[in-house]
TrEMBL record:
GO MF term (any one): carbohydrate binding
SUPFAM superfamilies, per the entry: Periplasmic binding protein-like I
GO cellular component terms given for this protein: cell envelope
The protein, known as: D-ribose ABC transporter substrate-binding protein
């Protein structure tokens, strides 16, 4: 027996992983690490590199110093930290991140947060969403406006 999990929150899943560890069941995590507990195998993409790639893409599409918004994932999750780190390695030097807020890796939250961002900052040229679900919410919020989205 194995337990395979794709944790949304690296901290929140830790007690469950520790409980399963106590039962002698190996744990495999996908895409995100856990803060506590033993993991037999961790399978993931390079989230830092993915964040950098997103930043470079936006610079290419909207130009240097363009005003952008950022939809962050679940606060504290490894994917949030890592994707944000990679993105900001590029964005802090070549873009102007004028708004950022957590949308918790959720499409409906991505829609609502993007609507609020655009109301407060109508001059945003692009949105970086830390996952595809939030990007889809952002696209719905943007409608036919000429605003780039990557997620």
């Amino acid at each position: 027996d194995y337990l395979i999990v794709n944790p949304t929150d690296s901290s929140a899943i830790s007690s469950a992983v520790e409980s399963v560890n106590n039962e002698g069941i190996p744990v495999i995590t996908l895409d995100r690490s856990v803060d506590k507990g033993d993991v037999a195998s961790f399978i993931a993409s390079d989230n830092v590199e993915g964040g950098k790639m997103a930043g470079k893409y936006l610079v290419d599409k909207v130009g240097k110093n363009a005003k952008v918004g950022e939809l962050e994932g679940v606060p504290g999750a490894s994917a949030t930290r890592e994707r944000g780190k990679g993105f900001h390695e590029i964005a802090d030097k070549q873009l102007k991140v004028i708004a950022k807020q957590s949308a918790k890796f959720d499409r409906a939250e991505g829609l609502n947060v993007t609507q609020n961002m655009l109301e407060a900052h109508p001059n945003i040229k692009a949105i970086f969403a830390q996952n595809d679900e939030m990007a889809l919410g952002a696209i719905e919020a943007i409608g036919d406006k000429d605003i780039q989205v990557i997620g």
